[in-house]
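Hello Y.,

Per our agreement to keep a running log of every chain we model this quarter, I'm adding this entry. I've kept the format consistent with earlier entries: sequence first, then predicted structure.
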Amino acid sequence: MLLGILVLVGVTAAAAAELEVRVNDRRGGPVSDAVVTVVVRGVSPPTPNTPVRPASGSQRVVDQKALAFTPYVEVFRPGDEVVYSNSDRTRHHVYSFSPIKAFELVLAPGAKSAPLKLERSGVIAVGCNIHDGMINYLYISDAPWAARTDARGVVAFRGLPAGAFDVRVWQPRLPPKRPDLVQSGITLRAADRRSLTFSLSLLPDSRLQFDREHTRY
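Predicted structure for the entry above:
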């Protein structure tokens, strides 16, 4: 029986598809911190076979160090929690005006916030009311597969079932209030290994010109 289970697991793993998504700017340079989501085409709400992201209820930390939020963009599922940590030697006043989750946190050096639960899907822009150049984005998604690109502008999804998918990309420097970029009807067969490329036209980095009174999310 055990041998049969191991064989079945091996066959299932071998049959799973892989999808690599590469995000570039118009000059061909890599774009990090782009959120890529993958959904089964025609299914709403998404019903994944093998979610890549952990189940809702997980907790992650956004740190503040060298007067910057790290990471700049973080991906969550509804029900996840975020904790803000202050590794700087100065006080930070973390806040969001977002209708999805408005909050204020005053953090002394070395302090951490209580966990904040993120109940709703959407994008939350977070700033520091003391240091205007600090900004962070929380991307909450109920898509079955969601992740952000690394420094190479790449994210890889493994263990996808065969089927047709829509692949979407969002990045903070895209023009606001527009739909995510999408490539629709991407078909994967068992054991496929495919790659997609998105090319983005980006606005200037908002961390260099952040306006606390006009956050976009």
